[in-house]
Design goal:
The protein is an alpha+beta fold. The chain has one domain. The chain has helices at 45-53, 135-139, 142-147, 152-158, 200-205, 211-223, 233-245, 249-260, 272-284, and strands at 2-3, 60-64, 72-76, 79-84, 87-94, 98-101, 110-113, 118-119, 124-125, 165-167, 189-190. Strands 2, 3, 4, 5 and 11 form a five-stranded antiparallel sheet that branches. The protein has a two-stranded antiparallel ribbon with strand order 1-10. A two-stranded antiparallel sheet has the order 6-7. The radius of gyration is 19 Å and the shape is globular. 42% of the residues are buried. One iron/sulfur cluster binds next to helix 4.
Length: 295
Amino acid sequence: MELRCEGCAGCCVDWRPLDPDAAGSDRAGERPPLDDAYDLVPLTRDEVAAFLDDGLGDILVPRLFEPAERDLSVSIDGVEVAAARDRPVFVLGLRKPPKPVAPIGTEESRWLDACVFLDPTTLQCRIYDDDRYPRTCATYPGHNLELGVETECERVEDAGGGDRLLDDESPPDLPPPAFGPQALGATIFAYPNPDDLDGVVDRIRADALTADDRARFVGAAVGSRPGSLSVDRDRMAEARARARDADSWAGRAVREWTDRAGADGDCVDLDAESRDRLVSELEDDAGAPGTPGWD
Ligand code: SF4
Ligand code: SF4
């Protein structure tokens, strides 16, 4: 597998406004998500716990799913969601605020939803090669290649974003996929008290989850046991409280970008120098790890 990622960030940015026909959709498949985030990165329980330990519990966001035909389901806000027994199943990913970025080989910065860890200036990942770099990102697009599923890199190529997938041999040491029978309690979690979730589905659909909503799911994920539906209530409560109290540079940057953003896909009304200064102010100076640039 050999990739040319410089100037791309196709798997870190929601670039549907740039080319809706070429971009993919997380809404395809048997269990469409209730939210509209693009390329959400599913995290393992250990990754979630490690972000929480680093004070980054405010960068995590849950995803619930519509049930497939044969699935069990539970009703929340009058909407059926996929469930294991009577517990709604969910994954946790990284939040994607609007940022001023010029991905997939474009020149002009636009307001596009982008991973909380993407440096808008260099289009590099701020936690690349760090202990916290998610397994999903480190192995992308290995599972797609192994399964013969279209990659984001090829979609970027189709959108005229340059040659990206230079060698399509899947790596030999791929970990198990994020979804599958082994994933329960490891990357797919079950929320133990569905009655607590009144209003959550409406807020997921409106992209209006509160810090308390997100913290509930972080708690349930950290309290989960791999391979089982059981949740340790003490661990859940403690993790939920820590996630709710988190106040990281990244969580603050999400709020700042969201307050400043123009409409989805709109050009950024700043010259390159001012844009870079704003990125420094909201991210680098606020504590974000730097990126080296491509030279
Ligand atoms: S963690 Fe890094 S590589 Fe993964 S989606 Fe976010 S910016 Fe991209
Ligand atoms: S879409 Fe492919 S080429 Fe583009 S940044 Fe992601 S992995 Fe690299």
